[in-house]
Each structure stands twice: as C-alpha cells, then as structure tokens.
Design goal:
Strand order of the largest sheet: 1-2-12-11-10-9-4-6-7-8
Distance between the termini: 60 Å
Strand content: 25-35%
Order of helices and strands: EEEHEHEEEEHHEEEEEEEEEEEEEE
C-alpha cells in the first residue's frame, strides 16, 4: 500500500459505508478507483495565483480565525479538521453523521450562522477552480482535554462557536471527534494548481458546473475524500441544485508524513440522491393551527422516507438523506380537487419568527422554520410560483412546514401535496388539513 493511503477517507453516498483499498472496487451503487501518481515527490503548481474571485485561500482565511482562537481560554487549541467550499452554483453539501442525519441536523443545526449544517448561505464562488480560494471555510479545533471549538470564515466574516455543551453534542452526533492534529502550514494555491493539472481541468470540462471541496483532517462532509496527512481537492457534481441520481467525481490528494509523500487521484461515481422520497406529514405530532392579525399558520411536521423501509424513529440510517428544497413543488387543493391560488411569501429572506411572515391576501404560501423558529426558506419565491426562495436547503425529518394563509380561509377538506420538480427524483406526500 502506498504511503499513508490507508489514511484517505473514501465514502460512497450509499445506505452502507464502503471501505476501499487501493484497487478498483465495485460495491452495489458506488464505484471508485484510486491510484498513486507519485511518491516522495514534492508537488509544485505554477507560480502566481489565479483569480480568487470572492474567495480566500486557506492561509488568508485561517490566520484571522486562528488569531481569534488563540485568545480563548482552555488552549492551546489545535486543528483537527478544515473544509473549504467553492461551488459554481448553489449547493447543499451533505454533512457527515454518525448514526442519523436527522439527529445530527437537529443538534448541529442549532449552531448560529452559516455552518455546514445550515449551508444555504454559502455564496456561489466567482473565482477560478485552480486558485486555491473558497468563499467559505469551516474549522474544527480541540484541546488536550478533548474539548472542541467550531469556527467559520465567510468571505472574511469570522464566527466562533464553543467551547460549549451544544457543540460537544454536535461533534458526537456528527462523528467528528478525531485523534489527529493536522498541520496547517501548507497554503492551497499550489495544491489547487497541482490538482487542477492532474485531473481537475479534465473533470471540469466534462462535468461543469461543479463544487470544489478542499479537505484536510477529519471529514466534515459525508462523501469527499479526506486525510490528516495532506490536502485533498474534491471535484463534485453531487450536492448541486438541479443535480440528482448518479454523478461522477474526482479527488486529488497530496499526502505527506514521516513515511514519505504521495499524490493520488481517485475517480468514481456516487448516488447523489435516493431514487424516490415520501414526505410523511404529521408522523410525530398532530397538526397545530394558530391565527393572528388575520393570518393563519398551520404547522405540519413531517418525516422524509426513502424507498426502503419506514422511518420509525430518528436514529435509523434509513432517514431519507438527500432531499433538498429545489426538488419539491407544492400544491394546495380544496375538497373538489381544485387548486387554490398560491402567492409569493411575504418573507423572502431571514426573519426571526413567523410573526414576520403575515398572510398574503391573494393566496397561500409556506415557510420552513429552523429549530429556534427562525426562517430557513419559503415557498414560492418572489419570481417563480413553483420554486423556493432558497433552492439549496436540506429537508429532513426534524423539520416542519408551516402553511400560511388569510385568517378568513376555511381549510376544511383541503389538502397540501408535494410533487417532484423537473429533474428531481420521484417525490410524493400529502397532508389533509
């Protein structure tokens, strides 16, 4: 086995975890191949930095974050995980999880701001794929007592969460605890240039648009390759708005440790989504309705079920991962089957509570709130009567949908249905009101 190859984390987006050695492996619904390009050879990209656009290279993102972390009690704080996200279109990266995506999102989604568990606020990258830059960087630190801190740099805006019991629970549920300490001394421009020359350019020509993930250390996302011994640059089609089913990927890593160094390329394909989904409304609690200021809110908790098995609780692997807001189209019909008018949501961006989303007298709309009641998304958008305001929000079984209409409406015998948007997997589900 080549130096440190066993430290490369390779996952297929499947219902089971597949462990892959340095051979070609065919396993159910995933295929991957990995080969060594060079051993004991220093990789140097071309001189200079290509266009970073709205992104920051790792060093530019890391240094102000690290300066902030250095002032926190409990140190020294050392890095265990680094992730940079540079996506050419809106994306919804699938976070890593230990047992259940639902439970992980429920716990980790309570962290404030833009995170990998609430990544719809990550901006589209405007720079070059070979620049080593990304608009969003995500860092996990730990100290000698195994206490963890989470930090992000979003286009120069720094946020630090922890140490706290909330993030400690998140680390556990997300499976992010690690014995590794990573070396942050290597910046990403040369890494990006080398990866782009080795495989990224060909992949981008054949599979554009894409999302580029820079990973070092413990893997914050489910599928990209990762290693504690060097940067891995992942080129993905999965996670993008408008993409579902099977898609190719390529990853290029530059590993180094006391046993030598080596550059590898990993090619394969992933199942980006399940073939179908069923949205089961009211699976956990009954519907609740509230009326205020001529606005009626109908709360509809739901579960996301995949095609195999039923969702019986929130600690199962069969919890319908991969459903994203852009995939769904919604209809409200009366007792005769006639469609009721839909109107643009009165809240098209973040608001603190549903009280900031008063009814639109011309029709109904829907809001997806977060665990603390804040706005995540609304349907429909101001410009498209069959699309969400934010297309890249993950829908999971810890969520609820709130139907908003005028307080004078009589919803008796009405039904809300979810259908598939164009190019999405088959999606079914309905709720009687």
């Amino acid at each position: 086995m080549p130096p440190d190859a066993e430290a490369v984390q390779l996952f297929g987006r499947t219902w089971i975890v597949i462990t892959i050695a340095i051979v070609v492996v065919v396993a159910g619904i995933g295929v991957t191949s990995l080969w060594l390009l060079s051993v004991n050879k220093k990789v140097n990209g071309p001189a200079g930095l290509d266009d970073p656009g709205n992104g920051l290279t790792f060093t530019n993102a890391f240094e102000p974050v690290n300066a902030t972390i250095a002032n926190l009690a409990g140190g020294p704080w050392q890095l265990t995980s680094i992730l940079g996200i540079a996506s050419e279109v809106p994306a919804a990266p699938l976070p890593n999880y230990r047992d259940s995506l639902n439970q992980t999102l429920r716990i980790c989604g309570q962290l404030p701001g833009v995170t990998i568990w609430n990544s719809s606020g990550v901006p589209v990258f405007t720079g070059s794929l070979n620049s080593g830059a990304a608009p969003f960087w995500s860092f996990i630190y730990k100290n000698t007592s195994q206490t963890y801190i989470y930090a992000t740099n979003l286009e120069g805006t720094i946020r630090v969460d922890g140490p706290s019991s909330a993030f400690a629970s998140c680390v556990q549920e997300a499976g992010l605890g690690s014995s590794y300490i990573v070396n942050p001394s290597v910046d990403t421009p040369n890494v990006a240039q080398a990866a782009y020359s080795a495989a990224g350019e060909v992949f981008s020509i054949n599979h554009s648009p894409l999302v580029e993930y820079y990973v070092l250390g413990s893997n914050q996302l489910l599928d990209p390759d990762a290693s504690p011994f060097g940067w891995v640059v992942n080129y993905f089609r999965c996670d993008l708005v408008g993409v579902s089913g099977l898609e190719n990927y390529t990853a290029v890593g530059n590993l180094s440790s006391g046993r030598g160094s080596g550059m590898f390329v990993d090619n394969g394909w992933l199942t980006c989504t399940l073939p179908s989904y069923r949205v089961a409304f009211g699976a956990s609690t009954g519907n609740s309705t509230s009326t205020f200021d001529n606005t009626m809110d109908v709360h509809l908790p739901f579960g996301v079920l995949g095609p195999q098995g039923a969702l019986t609780n929130n600690s199962t692997l069969y919890d319908g991962w991969g459903l994203v807001s852009w995939m769904t189209h919604w209809e409200l019909v009366d007792g005769t089957g006639q469609s009721l008018p839909v109107s643009p949501a009165t809240c098209q961006s973040w608001v603190a509570t549903l009280a900031d989303c008063p009814a639109n007298s011309s029709g109904w709309f829907a809001v997806l709130p977060s665990q603390n009641g804040g706005w995540l998304d609304s349907y429909p958008s101001a410009t498209n009567s069959s699309a969400w305001a934010v297309p890249n929000v993950i829908l999971s079984s810890q969520d609820q949908l709130v139907l908003v209409c005028a307080g004078s409406w009589n919803l008796t015998a009405d039904a809300l249905s979810v259908l598939s948007a164009p190019s999405a997997p088959e999606i079914t589900g309905s709720a009687s009101l």
